[in-house]
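Worked example (supplementary).
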Amino acid sequence: MAQSNFDRRRINGPDESYQPLFESEDERETRWKAGEPRKGRAARDIRPIFLKAGLINQANGSAYIETEKTKIACAVYGPRQSKTTVYNEKGRLNVEVKFAPFSCTRRRVPIRDAEDRSVAVQIQQALIPAVRLELLPKSTIDIFVTIIENDGIEGCIAAGSVAASVALADAGIEMLGLVASSSAAVVGKEIWMDPTEEEGHIASGSLVLAGMPALGTITSVWQSGAMAPDEAIKCMEACQECCADVHSVMAQSLLENAPNT
Amino acid sequence: MAATSASASSSSNSAEQDALKALTFQRLHPKTYLERFVAEDIRPDGRDFDEWRDVSLNVGSISTADGSALVRLGSTTVVCGVKAEIAEPELDRPQEGFLVPNLDLPAICSPKFKPGPPTDEAQVLSDRLNDVLVSSCVVSTTSLCIEPGKAAWVLYVDATCINYDGNAFDATLLAMVAALKNTTLPKATYNEETKRTICSRKIREPLQIGRLPTSFSFGIFDGTHILADPTSFEEPLLDTTVSVVIDESGGLTSVMQLGLGIIGGDDLLNKCIDAAKDCWRKTRKGVYGAS
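After joint prediction of all chains, the assembly is encoded as:
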């Protein structure tokens, strides 16, 4: 991918550089064909989650989540004073997402672009209904998410929401419930939970759902691609079941960290 | 039962109040706070002046990068990844590839960094790291050439700080060199007819690594006290920072000094260099693993 931006604040390489091209004969024989079952897991299995709270001691709250190849670190700073002069009765929740340059198959330029922004907006929409912002006038809560390794954008959004929710709880910010999130994809006639990047490419449609299992509510649903309405409903139901499992993992990780504080 | 719990809570209350008072004092008068500790020959986190924090290094955990390393220097956490791309060499240097190191200090790592373009601190650190990597010749740029004048490798060495607790320079240099040591490049062949470079998926070769530098940073407090490996609390209170870079055979590669300048003259500088060599010999000699 040719990129010719000279960033005067960083060390720059050559004007244009492109990703290495590989021989076509080395094309992997492991291409998925229609009708084949999922490789490595059952259709409804999610990847094992490693979740740890409190790793970033500079922040008020933090969490690190790892699901096989997706690695995300999240820190929460706040509530702190709003920099704007406009009086805000309810607190503000500000989410910023950053992809590390080495996190995707193709190197990402450090400048923030539209994808960063869209992931941030989705995480924000998943969290806002859960945080008690009316208790924090004139304040801002800053949530910073750094994606260290990316294996599927839906997985990133789901894992990012989970990490942000655990970080908020770690910071002691009052919430109505923990927000759990999971993703699903429609591949052929089946529904596969927690798709990786490869699986996301072969899927016809995908769905990310975030909710609070403790209250039995949904906070955000994002569907993209082509799927029949009943498939979408089935995906949402499957995601809700997964969210309940993820919630217990989140609660466990917070309990483990609690004696340390 | 209630009486014992009440007395227990009152004693824990006074302990909590003392801790709160100490924390408030630290916030309002940081310099005096540090002076009081230094007068007792100890530092706020309990270390001696010449004591270094523990280092842990983890390589190769990021599959999307060609080489990666995660370093924890006490609480300071830096993750570094190397991505290789292909470009045309410069016209006046047709046999050389490119090495592009960068350090990012994002808002996630510390409350004093705000989101946005790289701050002065990040830019200065990136520049210093570039100097050290180039001057120590960790990777010779001629080894990155695929076809003279036509194609060469560009190694983007990007480091991101996840938690900033002082001394990002040492941690980042460690992470960058370890990531480069861990990097493997696909075998590339330049095709004259199609004028394109094709890489093999199956054959990967490790980089040719030159020297393996390690750096040791010291802070000079009040003109006389040398504090090794400053934390993020101590850093803004220091007059000068001295960084000593030592290569894998214990030889001195470079010495950098930032700040007001050393009042004590060469003596302090020699002490720093000796302390760095000492620490290298004792603990950091094998930090990059078997080569």
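Two points are worth noting when inspecting this output. The first helix of chain B runs from residue 2 to 28. Chain B has a mean pLDDT of 87.
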